[in-house]
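Handout, page 2. Input:
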Amino acid sequence: MTKVFAKECAQFGIRCNALLPGLTDTNFASALVKNEAILNTALQQIPLKRVADPSEMAGAVLYLASDASSYTTGVSLNVDGGFLF
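Output:
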């Protein structure tokens, strides 16, 4: 969907990108992060072996919203500690 929107909206100067976050220490994910068995299983699948801090997602969003990404469109940016290699 991101690529279709990017292609359709490019003619209007609108860029469309998506952030694909990994396991992040947020209120939403607290049930996973606080459950030791689930957390250990998840960490075995994440090459960086840790949960992301919300600020790490914010940095990616800041990039996508900034002029630094002015020629970036149709991208799905994985910020997942290597989970989707």
